[in-house]
Amino acid sequence: MNKKILFGVIFILGLVCVQPALAIPDAKVPILMYHYIRNYHSPKDKIGERLSVSPADFAAQLDLIQRAGYQTAVFADAATTSPRLPSKTIILTFDDGYRDFYTAAFPELKKRRMKAVVYPIYSVIGTSDYLTKEMITEMLASGLVEIGSHTLNHLDLTHLKPAKLQAEVFQSKLNLERDFGIKILSLCYPYGIYDRAVIAAAKRAGYLYALDTKTGQGDWASPYEMKRYRVDDSTNLAGLLRALGGPSK
Ligand SMILES: [Zn+2]
Question: How far is it, in rounded angstroms, from Cα 74 to Cα 114?
Answer without folding.
Answer: 10
